[in-house]
Specification:
By secondary structure, this protein is mainly alpha-helical. It is 74% helix and 3% strand.
Length: 151
Amino acid sequence: MLGQIHIVMKINEATEFFKNRLIDAEHISEVKLYHRFIRILSSLQRKELSESQVQSIEEKLDSLELKSETSSRKQYLKQRLKEFLKFLKEEFSLISEGYHRSKGVGLGLALGAAFGAATTMGVGIALGLAVGLSIGNKRDKEAEKENRVLA
């Protein structure tokens, strides 16, 4: 008895899937979500990935079940995008544009508020924000030089 052949979703097939979804998009938030998927997938296609890396990515795309029909399609795909980005970061150290900057801002605000409690809140937050933004931008530039940033 022959086993079933399971064909995984290829990166270019996923890109086409989201391009086709754009046609039926009813809300700007859906359009933005589909465009984000398309940019990430296109960025992956431009990267010099090994055959095993491409296979791993395509298996992950398949496991996300992007073509599943759900009552809350946008929410479902937002969760899948988050899961896909986490996978790319953990497996390949690939990050989205501005990743470190957003983390730096959050950390800077938290540290600034703590520092502001001891001094003046406004000054502490401004100082923390500036430091966090600076560190985040520096780390984003390093990641870009290492070709680890997804468009």
